[in-house]
Write a structure and sequence with these properties.
Blueprint: H1 4-11, H2 24-32, E1 43-47, H3 52-65, E2 70-73, E3 85-87, E4 94-95, H4 98-112, H5 119-133, E5 138-142, E6 160-163, H6 171-174, H7 178-185, E7 195-197, H8 202-215, E8 220-222, E9 227-232, E10 235-240, E11 243-248, H9 256-273, H10 278-287, E12 295-296, E13 311-314, H11 320-336, E14 341-345, H12 353-357, E15 364-369, H13 381-390, E16 395-397, H14 401-410, E17 418-422, H15 425-435
Parallel strand pairs: 1-5, 1-6, 2-5, 6-7, 7-8, 13-17, 14-15, 14-17, 15-16
Antiparallel strand pairs: 2-3, 3-4, 9-10, 10-11, 12-13
Helix pairs in contact: 1-4, 2-5, 3-9, 3-10, 4-5, 7-8
Cofactor: Mg(2+)
Catalytic activity: (6S)-5,6,7,8-tetrahydrofolyl-(gamma-L-Glu)(n) + L-glutamate + ATP = (6S)-5,6,7,8-tetrahydrofolyl-(gamma-L-Glu)(n+1) + ADP + phosphate + H(+)
Keywords: ATP-binding, Ligase, Magnesium, Metal-binding, Nucleotide-binding
């Protein structure tokens, strides 16, 4: 038996393009595999630009708190591919074991027989195959890119479909306006399945609602219109037509996580899980975990390098809207506990770096631009620093995150600094690995 790393490397050569949005290839492979997508537990399918993973994390935590077993498919991974496939089990799921993953990947490779297929398509097929062969109560399925032609869009009768906030990202594949992108995300809506639309701007909301109506969604729930979530007296209050939930504030930091938590609750209720005990929703708020999304690193090799009483935060937000909500979260932290904000940033060349960083003007004291290793799409650190300066930030270049932390520790600050490492999930993965705290 080979290793998953060897198999995954071989899969990269099966198609000349890394991304080629289409359903034909994966449907052919799934048919050869016996159509595992037709033998799954109830599926909640989630698309969107930002917040997909966090929304799934809340749903998983709530469902598992109620004693249900949950399969989860998300992407990309941070450190190891195994993070993408969580196999449900009583008491809580686990990342797929190496031997189980290798066997599934080998089966897919053998049955695909060398035909052209993208990396994402063949690995998504492996996940669906595994989910069909391991018992669970629910499948939480995250779209990889877009929705309409994404390889996960092979579920004919989902229990519920969800679209989290939509904004500009991956314009080269999905379109150069938010309405075009929303139309692609709306491609997961299915006749007879509830459609849950997270609170967002009017333009994408209109496109999403119109598409859900056109395909014949059984029920359409629109955030701020059909369900509402807000903070009141240090509690999270969720309201919809089925009643009110008074919950603890989420463990996941940032006001944007209130929206994600509310969307998760709305989706569970729409999918038929509204009758779960109140304690499951309460516990879900406190136990939901999603690495590299405003994650505080309080221990580890990198955390040991920061000045005494300083804070070290990590976030993988990588588009302008992600930058906006992250800057707002940093501003909220500063209101509660003032501290000089210092950024360590690496970005990909495919992202709008200037627009993403502009939200930190007047908020961050300085930015250290660092290279991202092991990806051809990484922007040179010098270019990141130049774009940061154009966005109104003071910026300088260093050779690594470790070097940036040493530089921060060597300088004088008005108070122990709040250090934010951000800009890319690739960088976030490197940081978690170097810190010795990968997702488990």
């Amino acid at each position: 038996m080979g290793s998953s790393d060897t198999l995954l490397a071989r899969f990269m050569a099966l198609h000349p393009k890394l991304i080629d949005l289409s359903l034909g290839r994966i449907l052919t492979l799934l048919e050869r595999l016996g159509d595992p997508q037709k033998r799954l537990p109830p599926v909640i399918h989630v698309a969107g630009t930002n917040g997909k993973g966090s929304t799934i994390a809340f749903m998983r935590a709530i469902l598992e708190a109620a004693g249900l077993s949950v399969h989860v498919y998300t992407s990309p991974h941070l450190v190891r591919f195994h993070e993408r496939i969580r196999i449900g089990a009583p008491g809580g799921g686990r990342f797929v074991d190496e031997a189980v993953l290798v066997e599934a990947l080998e089966r897919c490779e053998r049955i695909n027989a060398g035909d052209a297929i993208t990396f994402f398509e063949i690995t998504a097929a492996a996940a669906l195959l595994l989910f069909s062969e391991h018992k669970a109560d629910v499948v939480l399925l995250e779209v990889g890119l877009g929705g309409r032609f994404d390889a996960t869009n092979v579920i004919a009768h989902p229990a519920c479909t969800v679209v989290t906030p939509v904004s500009l990202d991956h314009a080269e594949y999905l379109g150069d306006t938010v309405t075009k992108i929303a139309a692609e995300k709306a491609g997961i809506f299915k006749r007879g399945a509830p459609a849950v639309i997270a609170p967002q701007e009017p333009e994408p909301t209109a496109v999403l609602e119109a598409t859900a109506e056109r395909v014949g969604a059984s029920r359409i729930l629109i955030g701020a219109q059909d369900f509402n979530v807000h903070e009141d007296g240090g509690r999270l209050v969720y309201e919809d037509g089925d009643g009110l939930l008074d919950l603890p504030l989420p463990r996941l930091a940032g006001r944007h996580q209130h929206v994600n938590a509310g969307t998760a609750i709305a989706a569970l209720r729409a999918a038929g899980y509204g009758g779960l005990p109140a304690r499951a929703f309460e516990q879900g708020m406190l136990e939901a975990d999603w690495p590299a999304r405003l994650q505080r690193l309080a221990r580890g090799k990198l955390a040991e390098l920061i000045p005494a009483r300083a804070e070290l935060w990590l976030d993988g937000g990588h588009n302008p809207d992600g930058g906006r909500v992250l800057a707002q979260a940093m501003a909220d932290l500063a209101d509660r506990n003032p501290a000089p904000l210092v950024m360590i940033t690496g970005l990909l060349s495919t992202k709008d770096a200037k627009a993403t960083l502009s939200h930190f003007k007047g908020l961050a004291q300085t930015l250290f631009a660092v290279p991202i290793q092991n990806t051809l799409a990484a922007r040179p650190a010098e270019e990141v620093a130049s774009l940061a300066r154009e966005a109104g930030l003071k910026a300088e270049v260093v050779g690594s995150v470790e070097q940036a932390l040493h530089e921060i520790a060597s300088r004088s600050w008005s108070a122990p600094p709040r250090i934010l490492i951000c800009g890319s999930l690739y960088l976030a993965g490197e940081v978690l690995s170097a810190n010795g705290t990968p997702p488990v």
